[in-house]
């Protein structure tokens, strides 16, 4: 009898990988939906709850604040208790918090519920991505993780389309139905995830070799076993402080900064899309068309980046993404009073080019850290990236009112070009490496 020595990272994609992508990617779809739906409901919700600029900004930023705490919590829970158990926490919170928003009567109550939604989103990032990456073949790792970002923008696009439909059909209180609508998607996600196995890499890191071997055989067949796993993690538990002092501090800084610079302008746009487009002289049907068109172009940009990620490489893609998207934002600042077609063209260029940085948000942190601290590192990156995003989102209505749209676009361009500088200095290349090689400091 011959021994199968093929690494599980070199096997072809099978039905399990496809289904796991759906299970993990469903979380990204819900994340994009719940974080974008607030922008759809904002105008009607502001009138319904008599919100001033302060509370508009706080409610828009509340989910991002929740992501800060949820990222830390999700990373710790996922590395401590396993991927499988934590996989159901996010959908449960999505359902409960979204339904509760239907009956909300005050700005503070809505802020707190949106905060819980953010916690759920923060938990999703480390658990869904670490579980997926620890099963994927090497050559499919980048494209599949990038697909999760595409699904995020698909969820955002769906939020704008369905939300706009509900607002047109539902009367003055339709915003309540709009904010409650993610509960149905969360319920579907919960059902889809039933039957997901635990990560054999995590099981092995906890000394549960027999269970890890059983999972490998069930997924890849009886010809495979622990011998086909290309790494044997040591049994250890690292805290956040240990993470920074274990040689991975520089990588953590790179992930946090590039992730922050890629999400701050995006979240600001999504939270206040109608207001931003209105300040750029896009109103009425132009604003509605622009919101959907720009969101779809984000999806197209991510699809293009997904196709190029293995051939172009991670580092080159990130640098070009920040460069050209930053120039597009500069153009919006310079030509803020331009014709509608020019504004849409520049916004469209930003949406297309930022796709590279967007898809790498989930690729880099999952590749740069070992199994023992992978989810924790992803959670920390998620949390730190949302600090700036929350502050930026809160400031958008204030800055627009006080300094105007040109200054707002220049500020967004400065953030994006900072990402370019940091990526040029620190971004590594991890394509064609297995997880153990990519995470190695040597």
Characterization of the model:
By secondary structure, this protein is an all-alpha fold. The protein has one domain: MFS general substrate transporter like domains (Growth Hormone, Chain: A). Helix content is 80%, strand content 0%. It is built from 18 helices and no strands. The protein is globular. The model has no long low-confidence stretch (mean pLDDT 85). One of its GO terms (molecular function) is transmembrane transporter activity.
Q: How would the global form be characterised?
A: globular
Number of domains: 1
Query: How far apart lie the N and C ends?
Result: 37 Å
Residue-averaged pLDDT = 85
Q: Biggest sheet, open or closed, and with what strands and sense?
A: none
The CATH topology: Growth Hormone, Chain: A
Name given to the CATH architecture: Up-down Bundle
Beta-strand residue fraction: under 5%
CATH superfamily: MFS general substrate transporter like domains
Task: Outline the low-pLDDT stretches.
Answer: none
DSSP E strands, number: 0
Q: From N to C, what is the helix and strand string?
A: HHHHHHHHHHHHHHHHHH
Tell me the number of helical segments per DSSP (H or I, 4 or more residues long). Answer: 18
Structural class: mainly alpha
The CATH class turns out to be: Mainly Alpha
Q: Which value, in Å, is the CA radius of gyration?
A: 21 Å
User: Helix share of residues?
Assistant: over 70%
């Amino acid at each position: 009898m011959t021994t199968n020595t093929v690494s599980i990272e070199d096997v072809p994609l099978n039905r399990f990988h496809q289904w796991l992508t759906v299970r993990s990617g469903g979380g990204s779809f819900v994340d994009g939906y719940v974080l974008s739906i607030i922008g759809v409901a904002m105008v009607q919700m502001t009138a319904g709850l008599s919100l001033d600029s302060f509370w508009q900004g706080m409610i828009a930023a509340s989910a991002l604040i929740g992501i800060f705490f949820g990222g830390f919590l999700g990373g710790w829970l996922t590395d401590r208790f396993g991927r499988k158990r934590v996989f159901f926490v996010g959908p449960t919170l999505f359902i409960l918090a979204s339904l509760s928003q239907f009956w909300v009567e005050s700005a503070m109550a809505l802020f707190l519920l949106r905060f819980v939604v953010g916690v759920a989103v923060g938990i999703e990032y480390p658990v869904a991505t670490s579980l997926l990456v620890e099963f994927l073949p090497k050559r499919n790792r980048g494209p599949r993780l990038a697909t999760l970002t595409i699904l995020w923008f698909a969820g955002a696009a769906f939020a704008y389309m369905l939300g706009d439909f509900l607002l047109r059909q539902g009367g003055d209180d339709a915003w309540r139905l709009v904010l409650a609508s993610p509960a149905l998607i969360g319920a579907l996600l919960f059902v889809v995830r039933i039957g997901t196995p635990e990560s054999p890499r995590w099981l092995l890191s906890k000394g549960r070799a027999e269970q890890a071997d059983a999972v490998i055989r069930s997924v890849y067949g009886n010809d495979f076993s622990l011998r086909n796993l290309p790494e044997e993690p040591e049994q250890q538990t690292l805290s956040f402080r240990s993470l920074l002092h274990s040689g991975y501090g520089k990588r953590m800084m790179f992930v946090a900064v590039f992730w922050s610079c890629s999400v701050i302008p995006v979240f600001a746009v999504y939270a206040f899309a109608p207001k931003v487009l209105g300040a750029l002289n896009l109103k009425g049907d132009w604003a509605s068309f622009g919101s959907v068109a720009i969101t779809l172009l984000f999806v197209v940009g991510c699809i293009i980046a997904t196709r190029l990620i293995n051939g172009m490489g991670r580092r080159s893609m990130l640098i070009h993404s920040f460069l050209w998207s930053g120039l597009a934002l500069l153009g919006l600042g310079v030509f803020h009073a331009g014709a509608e077609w020019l504004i849409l063209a520049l916004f469209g260029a930003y949406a297309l080019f930022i796709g590279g940085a967007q898809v790498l948000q989930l690729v880099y942190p999952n590749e740069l850290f070992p199994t023992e601290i992978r989810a924790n590192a992803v959670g920390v990156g998620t949390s730190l990236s949302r600090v700036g995003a929350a502050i930026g989102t809160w400031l958008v209505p204030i800055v627009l009112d006080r300094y105007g749209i040109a200054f707002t676009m220049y500020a967004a361009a400065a953030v994006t070009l900072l990402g370019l500088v940091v990526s040029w200095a620190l971004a590594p290349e991890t394509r064609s490496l297995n997880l153990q090689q990519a995470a190695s400091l040597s």
